[in-house]
Design brief:
This protein is an alpha/beta fold and about 525 residues long. The chain contains 14 helices and 26 strands. α9 packs parallel to α11 and α10 runs antiparallel to α11. The N and C termini lie far apart (about 75 Å).
Length: about 525
């Protein structure tokens, strides 16, 4: 009897393991990033290679970036599987007095990375990244990007303590570590240097980076993990607008680069041994008009600026982020903090306001997974107001921006058009022809890649393994919990209302959209 029970227990355990954890069969994982690609642009007309992957693999229809929906935040989310409050990288630019007392710093610049790591004992990014974890497991990695955001994935000065470290390479906007690798990448591009001057479309730089990976680095063999980060359509959409001819040309160019990646895998007879993920860091919106946040605060009597020339207690520093902004009050002076909130809650450009301290009509930083308790966190995060109106090219999604007028494009807000981005997956471990309506996010990619490679997912990750997309998964669909949060404040005869719509799956939190409005009583 005891023997029979033991056998039954082992059978049940095996079945449960098959459902709960699928061991990947792919020998390689490749991630290709189309920076700023909205999923509604995946059509056979403009991106036939990506469309083919989406229809023959898995298309994640409800995919989400982390908020703020900008490149550096989501480059870090893709690398770490975490929200900004855990990774410590909260925006493209932020204000850190230890790095620059008077001005915000670019979060991905090499100077910021090096200084940040020196001051934090190597923890500028507070948690381990995907390449670092894979290297620690004994496998080398290649990370190549036309933007410097890739330096956040594997930013360390080249380590030599293991063979995996010695063989790993990171390329970001022409800067390569280790430096000796650069000659190989130039040879792969007909001995031409990286064309750093971005164009619209940004064809030359993206193609150089693509060839640097597949004809340069891959010449040594394809590692367990590779990442290719393309700048377009983001660069072109910023300059020319969503849906413009130039932006559609940019999507076509990125799709051609994807085609070259797939052809290289075919030529090496590795396509059926490789899981390919195509993801974007965020969605995109058209700019309706520019908001003057500093001017609105100044008219209310606050000493607000974009730079602290000679800061004093209570001064307000505004850090524009396109569809969002960070606001810092010097020395956390509470009177100025509360006055700033009241001003912003009466402005027609404010969408959603997150506050470090409890203020009526705001949401807490923790609600959007920012660490409001940390020393360097802002006093407010603002998502700008948005609508579903169409731009001059006929595409929906308009936002009021913190920089740039009508005709261009931007992102960063809680607009549903910024907060719905691209994820397509294809390969031996993935289902074929699946359109998934289960919410997913950029925070899920790192744990999924580790799971496929058979590497333990660290508890630091906020994301989940996207098992429902696995070919061998036959369990029940994950449960989805949807919530709508609201905050209201009456200011004289003006009533401020804001909302935040979220989805939760297996403990992973995604932000669907959020906005605000004013009414008069």
């Amino acid at each position: 009897m005891r023997f029979t029970l033991r056998i039954l227990f082992l059978i049940a355990t095996a079945l449960l393991t098959r459902v709960v954890r699928a061991k990947g069969s792919a020998e390689h994982v490749v991630i290709v990033v189309f920076d700023g690609l909205r999923p509604d642009f995946i059509t056979p007309q403009y991106c036939p290679n990506l469309y083919s992957l989406a229809t023959n693999g898995v298309f994640f229809r409800r995919h989400h970036p982390a908020f703020v929906s900008t490149t550096i935040v989501n480059g870090t989310a893709l690398a770490t599987g975490t929200h900004p409050g855990h990774s410590g990288i909260i925006a493209n630019s932020d204000y850190r007095q230890e790095l620059s007392f008077t001005s915000p710093v670019a979060s991905e610049s090499l100077d910021t990375l090096r200084r940040g790591d020196l001051l934090s004992g190597g923890k500028y990014v507070a948690v381990d990244t995907l390449p670092e974890i894979i290297q620690a497991a004994g496998f080398h990695t290649y990370v190549a990007g036309t933007k410097g955001v890739t330096l956040l994935h594997d930013r360390g000065v080249r380590r030599t303590d293991t063979e995996a470290h010695r063989q790993s390479v990171v390329l970001g906007r022409g800067l390569v570590m280790p430096r000796a690798t650069l000659d190989t990448l130039k040879k792969a591009n007909d001995d031409k240097p990286f064309p750093d001057g971005f164009s619209t479309p940004n064809i030359a730089s993206d193609h150089w980076t693509t060839r640097a990976l597949i004809k340069g680095l891959w010449k040594r063999g394809i590692p367990k993990y590779s990442l290719l980060w393309l700048t377009d359509p983001d660069v072109t959409q910023h300059a020319k607008g969503v849906g413009s001819k130039e932006s559609m040309d940019a999507i076509e160019a990125s799709d051609r680069n994807l085609g070259e990646v797939l052809k290289e895998l075919d030529d090496r007879k590795l396509r059926d041994k490789t899981d390919v993920f195509v993801v974007s860091d965020h969605g995109f919106s058209a700019a309706e008009r520019e908001a003057d946040i500093v001017g609105a605060l100044k008219r209310a009597g606050l000493n607000a600026s974009l730079k602290n020339e000679n800061p004093e207690k209570g001064d307000v520093l505004v850090v524009p982020l396109g569809g969002a902004a960070l606001i810092y009050v010097i020395d956390r002076e509470e009177v100025s903090i509360r006055k700033t909130a009241a001003v912003l809650q009466q402005c027609d450009f404010t969408g959603v306001l997150f506050s470090k301290i409890s203020i009526e009509g705001t949401f807490s930083m923790d609600q959007v997974r920012y660490d409001g308790s940390s020393k360097g966190s802002p006093d407010f995060v603002i998502s700008m107001r948005w609508s579903g109106d169409r731009n001059e090219n006929g595409w929906p999604g308009m936002i009021i921006t913190t920089g740039g007028g009508r005709g261009g494009g931007t992102h960063g807000s809680l607009s549903r058009y910024d907060m719905n981005n691209t994820l397509v997956a294809s390969g031996p471990d993935l289902k074929r022809g699946l359109i998934s309506d289960i919410p997913s996010g950029n925070i899920d990619l790192a744990p999924t890649v580790l799971d496929i490679l058979g590497i333990t997912v660290p508890p630091s990750m906020d994301g989940r393994v996207l098992r429902e997309a696995y070919a061998k998964f036959d369990g029940p669909k994950p449960l989805i919990r949807e919530q709508r949060h609201e905050a209201i404040r009456r200011l004289g005869f003006i009533e401020w209302t804001q909302y935040l719509q979220t989805s939760t799956v297996e403990g992973s939190l995604y932000f669907d959209e959020g906005n605000g409005h004013l009414s008069f009583h």
